[in-house]
Design a protein that fits this description.
With 265 residues, the chain is α/β, with parallel strands linked by helices. It folds into 2 domains: 3-163, Rossmann fold (3-Layer(aba) Sandwich), CATH 3.40.50.720; 171-261, ProC C-terminal domain-like fold (Orthogonal Bundle), CATH 1.10.3730. It is 55% helix and 13% strand. The chain has helices at residues 10-22, 37-47, 55-61, 71-81, 100-106, 139-150, 163-171, 173-190, 195-216, 220-227, 233-243, 246-261, and strands at residues 3-6, 30-33, 50-51, 64-67, 90-93, 113-117, 127-133, 153-157. An 8-stranded mixed beta sheet has the order 3-2-1-4-5-6-7-8, sandwiched between helices. α7 crosses α12 (246-261) and α8 packs across α9 (195-216). It is elongated. The two termini are 41 Å apart. The protein binds NADPH dihydro-nicotinamide-adenine-dinucleotide phosphate and (2S)-3,4-dihydro-2H-pyrrole-2-carboxylic acid. (2S)-3,4-dihydro-2H-pyrrole-2-carboxylic acid is lined by residues 96, 167, 171-172. Its EC number is 1.5.1.2.
Length: 265
């Protein structure tokens, strides 16, 4: 099976690296093209991938055609590759905010299409990807397309109507969690840790907390209660964070993310 990537930016690279680590397909069966020849050729040669001269060539030579460009240019790129897409190929879009209806409108109504929303944790097999197939993608073909993402982490099949919220609390939230880790780390620096030490401590704590939460099957609130000793330090910190507007700040950030991805701001 050949997997072609149109665009080799942050998200495509994370998936490609995840696929290579999982040995999902041989490196040469991953085809790439992007805007800048020096970029995609260098990247392909670094990892043994197969560069292609054009977006249309990627579409022509691939079984799975992954559209990994920013939303603003997706329509132009689909116009370029439209002639090479057929019912024998699966188009996988990971472009935020572009619906299956719109993808069908920009291509052909009989094409098998998987709309997806991954996150960059795919690079280390820890991805969280939402997928939704159109009516033309079924059975083994659908399983094949989803298996690409399953090789790089968890997959959830969702209604399209859930995508913008999913994107905010997963795709974008990778950055928000890192923002939190960086905030903890800066607090450590304030009190004398080096940035490197503090970041290591904060990142390991975040990782451990997520793993413990999932392993225990408890709610986050229950975990907070376990850490908060009666009359202790943690509850004092939680209350101060709440006073400073921690929860409303997070919800406001998610609201803004959803508004941007749905074009409602
Ligand atoms: N970053 C993330 O965490 C996530 C991103 N996404 C989605 O992924 C998509 C890409 O985002 P991201 O990877 O962050 O963006 P980047 O800017 O990192 O990558 C965009 C890629 O598109 C390429 N490109 C630009 N113009 C063309 C063209 N005409 N033909 C072919 N390739 C072209 C660029 O080429 P070159 O490198 O040569 O300049 C680059 O490789 C977006 O639609 C976004 O919504 C979805 C979930 C998470
Ligand atoms: O910032 C963005 O637009 C993309 C979508 C989800 C994560 N990154």
């Amino acid at each position: 099976m050949k997997i072609g990537f149109i665009g080799v930016g942050s998200m495509a690279q994370a998936i490609i690296q995840g696929l290579l680590k999982a040995e999902f397909v041989p490196a040469q069966d991953i085809l790439v093209h992007s805007a800048h020849r020096d970029h995609y050729e260098k990247y392909a040669s670094q990892y043994g991938l197969t560069p292609q001269e054009s977006n249309a060539a990627v579409a022509k030579e691939s079984d799975l055609v992954v559209l990994a460009v920013v939303p603003a240019i997706a329509a132009d790129v689909l116009a370029e590759i439209r002639g090479e897409l057929s019912v024998k190929k699966t188009l996988i879009s990971l472009v935020s905010g572009i619906s299956l209806d719109r993808l069908e409108e920009l291509t052909d109504y009989n094409l098998p299409i998987l709309r997806s929303l991954p996150n960059i944790n795919s690079e280390f097999g820890q991805g969280m990807t939402a997928v939704c197939a159109n009516e033309n993608l079924k059975g083994d073909r659908k399983a094949q397309a989803i298996s690409m993402y399953a090789a790089t982490g968890n997959v959830a099949e969702l209604e399209e109507s859930q995508f913008s919220v999913f994107s905010a609390i997963s795709g974008s939230a990778v950055a928000y969690v890192d923002f939190f880790i960086d905030s903890l780390s800066r607090a450590g620096v304030k009190y004398g840790f080096t940035k490197q030490q503090a970041t290591q401590i904060a990142a390991q704590t975040t990782l451990g907390s997520a793993q413990s939460l999932m392993a225990s099957k408890k709610s986050p609130a229950e975990m907070i209660d376990k850490v908060s000793s009666p009359g202790g330090d943690t509850i004092a910190g939680i209350l101060a964070m709440e006073e400073a507007g921690f929860l409303p700040a997070v919800i406001k950030g998610i609201d803004a993310t959803i508004a941007k991805s749905t074009g409602s701001n």
